[in-house]
Amino acid sequence: MEVSSIRSTTTYLKLEDQSHVGEARRLAISYAGDLGFDDTDRGRIALVVTEAGTNAVLHGAGGEALLRSPADGDGPLELLVIDRGPGIADVAKALQDGYSTAGTPGTGLGAALRMSDTFDLYSTPTIGTVLYARFVPQFGGRAGSAGGRLDGLEIGEVCLPMRNEIVCGDAWVTRRSGHTDLVMVADGLGHGPDAAEAARRAVAVFEASRDQSPALLISEIHGALQSTRGAAVAIASLDHEIAQVRYAGVGNISGTIVHGSTTRSMVSLNGTVGHEMRKVQEFVYEWPTDGLLVMHSDGLQTHWRLDKYPGLAARHLNVIAAVLYRDFSRGRDDLTVIAARLPKAD
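The chain above was modelled as a monomer; its predicted structure follows.
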């Protein structure tokens, strides 16, 4: 059995002027140093942060950056830059090396593409742009596999506390056993430290349990959360061999299967795990080829549709999660959004 949970720390930064870009660059270099990146690696990270941040400030009417660094010092450094500007009219041209209308020393987003180990950019006219970059050390360092990702199931995520809160009352975790992956999202009631404690305890039970049934796992968590303020919890079990999803949820966690223009919402029952849970029930759904699983807490609105964004469903999963966060965040609660799929066969 393999367990992988959100072991990373996400730093949220506003990008409203060049001083904010400088702060993001300084933090990224500091985090990279802690991870064992050498001077050359830190230089390319600084360049990418500068190019992406400057693009958001000068062309995206400002935006925000999410810097993700593994809490245990073992994993890659990841960057998301998000804006709600006019979008990029010609993405292919903007990504040509040397093309820059911002006058930056790194010669534009083409340099950011070249300097990143993984890179994706999604831009929609009049809506905005999301840029994702991932870095691993070229020589040495301690950047192992990304937190929250298991071989066989690819996961992208945004998990953030309510603005002005230090800790997040949401949490997520994945677990693999044989040909089955389980994904859980937990949302502690309210926000702040007490909500975070309820979510952490739900994660601890999930990690320790050997049970493969979403309903039985939630029942275990229910018993463990009775001394906390309680949580909304949902668990999806994806069986790759029989192409099936078993799902159980209690409270306001949303689970959706996306396939092309078709979306299927999965059923969560009313209640609060740890307090008022009259029953928990599993529902079974077909897992289509190239299907996408989206799970999120109620910090995200539920009326999103990926087919309104041309080509988004095929993009990097962190980009998908970031677009949903940007356009559908309620802005008044902790937020977690998970996007998961099986990798395409070679």
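The two ends are 25 Å apart (CA to CA).
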